[in-house]
Design brief:
Elements lengths: L1 E9 L6 E7 L6 H18 L3 E10 L6
Antiparallel strand pairs: 1-2, 1-3
Length: 66
């Protein structure tokens, strides 16, 4: 299973950054994840208005558990 890993920084302190993991409940390959990811991180951004997403990637859930 894949997860979306977001790297985001606080808007009030751009040097304070953190990685967040969004597990995907559906089975898909990395290419499908890349195409399906934008609505997931858009929802995350709405739920976390104090954070600004700097980058994101899809990776296996078992790697680098956050």
């Amino acid at each position: 299973m894949l997860s979306i890993i977001l790297s985001a920084c606080l808007i009030s302190d751009p040097h304070s950054c953190k990685d967040f993991k969004i597990p995907l409940d559906v089975s898909m390959d990395a290419r499908q994840c890349t195409m399906a990811a934008p609505p997931y991180f858009a929802q995350w951004a709405e739920e976390h208005p104090n954070w600004q997403i700097k980058r994101w990637k899809c990776q296996a859930s078992s790697l680098n558990d956050i």
